[in-house]
Amino acid sequence: MHGERPVTLIGYSMGARLIFHALLCMAEHHGDKARGLVDDVILLGGTMAVDPDEWRLVRSVVCGRLVNAYSTRDWLLALLYRQGLTLVHFSAPRHLYH
């Protein structure tokens, strides 16, 4: 840890997705060492998975509030969510899947 104070993360759209997956990675690879580094997280209009196990892992890293804000009337968000797995698969480096 570089500092003594935890950080607050705020992300919109793909930034929210990036924060979600970064926290998921922290939880999976660093476990208890990652606890307390992130105070609050606000995710706005991101296309994240609805898997409860992934959300539990992300929540384990955040010691303060974890807010996921979105609109059910956001048609672009719905379209991106449906296409999300395809877009991630084609945009990720090939070695990640082998």
What secondary-structure arrangement, pairings included, does this model have?
Layout: E1 7-12, H1 14-30, E2 38-44, H2 52-61, E3 66-69, H3 75-91
Parallel strand pairs: 1-2, 2-3
Helix pairs in contact: 1-2
Major β-sheet profile: 3 strands, parallel
The beta-strand count equals 3
* Computed CA radius of gyration, to the nearest angstrom: 14 Å
Number of structural domains: 1
- Biggest sheet strand order reads 1-2-3
Quaternary structure type: single chain
- Unreliable spans: 85-98
- From N to C, what is the helix and strand string? EHEHEH
Question: Which bin fits the share of residues in helices?
Answer: 40-55%
Summing up helix and strand content along with how strands pair, one would put the structural category as alpha/beta
Strand content: 15-25%
Total DSSP helices = 3
Mean pLDDT: 78
**N-C termini distance:** 31 Å
Principal-axis shape? globular
Could you give a quick summary of the protein structure above?
By secondary structure, the protein is of the alpha/beta class.
Could you describe the 3D structure shown?
- The chain is 45% helix and 17% strand.
- It is an alpha/beta fold and 98 residues long.
- Strands 1-2-3 form a 3-stranded parallel β-sheet, covered by helices on one side.
- Helix 2 links the parallel strand 2 and strand 3.
- 16% of the residues are buried.
- Residues 85-98 have low confidence and may be disordered.
